[in-house]
Amino acid sequence: MRMKRLSFAIFWLFSSAAAAQQTECPVPLMPQLPQTNLSNPGDIHVKAAKTQIQQDTLAQFSGNVEIVSEQGHIQAQRAEINKADKTLHADGNIRFLDQQIQVNSEQIDLDLASGQLRLDSTEYQMLGFAGRGRADSIQLDNKEGLALKDVSFTTCPEGSEDWQIRASSLELSPNDNWGTARNTRFYLGGVPVFYLPYFKFPVTDERQTGLLFPKMSTSDKVGVSYEQPFYWNIAPNYDATFSPRVMTDRGVQLKTEFRYLTEEHQGQIDVEYLPDDRRYDLDKSRYFYRFLHQGKLSENWQVSAEINGLSDDNYFVDLGSDYFNRGDTHMYQTLAVNYYSEPLDFSAEVRDFEIIGDHPSAYRAVPELKLNYRQPLSEYLNFRVRSELAHFEDGRDDTPSATRLHMMPTLSVPLQNAWGELLTEASLLQTWYKQDLPEGSALQENVSRTLGQGRIYGAINFERETELFGSNMTQTLEPKFQYLYTSYENQDGIGLYDSNRLLNDYTGLFRGQEFVGLDRISDSNHLTVGVTTRLLDKNHQERFKLSLGQIFYFNNTKLKEYSREDDRSALAAELDWRLSSKWVARSALQLSSSNQKVERSNLTLDYQMSADKLVQISHRYVRDISGEEINQLGVTASWPLSQNWHWVGRWYKDLHGKRTIESFTGLQYESCCWALQFGSMRYLSNRFDTAGGQSTEEFDTTILLEFVFKGVGSKKSSRTLLDEGLFGYRQPYFLNN
């Protein structure tokens, strides 16, 4: 198997690999060559307005001459074929054409015996991508390959050569993936800015060892940053990238990436290392590592791993990351083996965490085994068992650790058809704990908990045809309900290892559980009611959707620390409304049933005319999360200013704290052959102090600057500028997901 990655020498532009680049310059179409069948390899077919043949050895042609040979298709005003010397000469508005290149020339000479072709004073156009240029001469030989003298290359249109490469000679040998260029100059706006006396470059779209396009930026955190990746094509299924990064305020960082791929396995290893951070005079080096692996052990068995580590809490904040956000608080360290079959699923996982900053120590599952079995007993009766065995510890001596075994056999009767469904379930929840307790703990060493649970879920779909705003619509009404009963058992003797209370959006109302994890299972006797209505246009596209739902409790929970004040949950609502082809509104909120105040909400209004012409206004609100209120307003926009200029911007304000927490503005100039991107971003640094606390007052400013020469490096669209920063541009998300 082969991994796809194109690698280019610093200026690989003459390479046919440039055909893989996406540009907006006019791209020449592949030509339709004459369908002339040559009987023998050396045959030549000629058409002309006038023909003269001398003694069967010299043939002269004039007037709209067309010559078809193995080498290609030639058009000229005059041509001469010498049968004795086995040569062909043509001049007068020469046009040479094959499947890869079109050349206009003053004259062409072809040695029919050796297959050597020479064109003088040429202008060439690559076919399939926007590469073109001039050459004093082009010589093609079946044995020696292709040689160009005094050659130039650009992807810019004629008359607007914003960048160009010139070389005294260029050579491409047959059966060789590398070409050679000598005395190469790189021009910007007609001014030479770079010179290489000699270099080699790839000539195919196969992965090749070489320099990738550099990255440049400047910020308060690192100063001016220059990163130069070097790609090493080790083997068809192994490669590596080394990226030295020079930062004026911090020093030299080395970033490495190694990838591997086999028939059954694939993975990646990343290591970043900064030996000496000059800015903070740290006594130790700074590093980050990451290992990812996915593999197939057999038809049913799979293995996966994710291991991350870093030297200090501020590594991502100070140096950035391609894989993590500066607001992340945990990194996973997991190893898992999974088995899948029709009746049985099994997984074994070791789950650890790397905690960033001053956050509570999390319990690790070392290991966690899960086994699920399902079997239809009859047409209307199903049986399944969910089971789990896990050991939890957090690495401290003053906290409990535990081994937990949980089993949940379930009998269900599912009834379904096109207009509705009814599901009845009965389950037994049996859990055993063996806890290793510190001295003085109020928990119990051995706990056995047995609970019974019954669930009835039903949904029905109604439809009707209606007319709204002059359009024919289909309206649906989709009520559903769920009754849930769970018995009670005292759980004070059980520690909390993987359990937290869940927040209920509309979908969460029907989960049938109030906690993630198994350490707390609330006694239940409640009814959940919800309804959804939709409007579908004549193309069956959803134009409007509104969902409302609420839980009605018949009695309070006996888990004292989770006692409820109300006999009903917050009212959960979700709205998706496509106001027009360009306007879309989305909202989700939870409204308290006791004081009718909004507990959580999320609202976005999108105006989008095209992929790069959009405005989004968003607001999110949480009344109480860890004792804090979140009340944020954001505006994101992307808009073309002219044919070549594009602007993007983003602004987020904390309405509760009355301050801007992130702002970004960026400009891009883009022609069909090059682009310049400039951006400035100011944001909360989120830096940790020595005690692990995170700063909420310190701001950083970053300047982004990037040149993109199309045909040299990858094109970066203006839309990608919206992804910079902590928030970025995205579809709305729910805070409790």
From TrEMBL:
Protein name: LPS-assembly protein LptD
Family: Belongs to the LptD family.
Quaternary context: Component of the lipopolysaccharide transport and assembly complex. Interacts with LptE and LptA.
InterPro entries, alphabetized: LipoPS_assembly_LptD, LptD, LptD_C, OstA-like_N
Species annotation: Bowmanella yangjiangensis
Domain LptD C-terminal, first and last residues per copy: 284-645
Residue intervals of the Organic solvent tolerance-like N-terminal domain: 45-173
HAMAP family associated with the record: LPS_assembly_LptD
Function of the molecule: Together with LptE, is involved in the assembly of lipopolysaccharide (LPS) at the surface of the outer membrane.
Cell compartment(s), UniProt: Cell outer membrane
Recorded superkingdom: Bacteria
Pfam families: LptD, LptD_N
Predominant subcellular localization, coarse grouping: membrane
Signal peptide: 1-19
Keyword entries, A-Z: Cell outer membrane, Membrane, Signal
